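Quick start: what a row looks like.
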Amino acid sequence: MRPVTSSTTSWFAVAAFAVVIVVSGGFAAAQSAPDSENGRYSMTPIPEGVLRLDTRTGAMSTCTKNGAGWACYAVPDERSALDAEIGRLQAEVEKLKGQLAAGPTVSGKIDEPLPKSDPLKKAEPRAAEGERKIEIPLPSDQDLDRVMSFLERAWRRLIDMANRVQKDVSGKI
């Protein structure tokens, strides 16, 4: 048999050390770390306690300390209500698309096209030939009569109001 040399002994020591590290690493991996340590939960302080976000599911909880210890309660999820409303609206859109595709239900439709000019539209100002002046159409007699009747009614109301105020003031004095 050969004598044990220092190089062989050091080689066995390094190998034994490596085996110990590998085995202890396996034991450490077998032990589960708390969920907050491996990044599953994100904690944010709030005035009532702590807001906890589950990064895997997206669920949020508020955790508060009471007499018996810490208690976490799920925060109401608005996302589910929004998803339900989106689903309802999508179903309604599909129903309306089906009704539209089923056939025309428009009443009062005419086949002849509408006139391209508006009969109530005023004539636009036009430039006189050979000159750079713009001709502005004057109001018609009907337009002037409407303005005058409006002014007369407004003037009569103003006079009536002045007479009522004068009677109220003279009656109280």
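That is the whole record. Confidence is low (pLDDT under 50) at residues 26-33. The CA atoms of residues 81 and 87 lie 10 Å apart.
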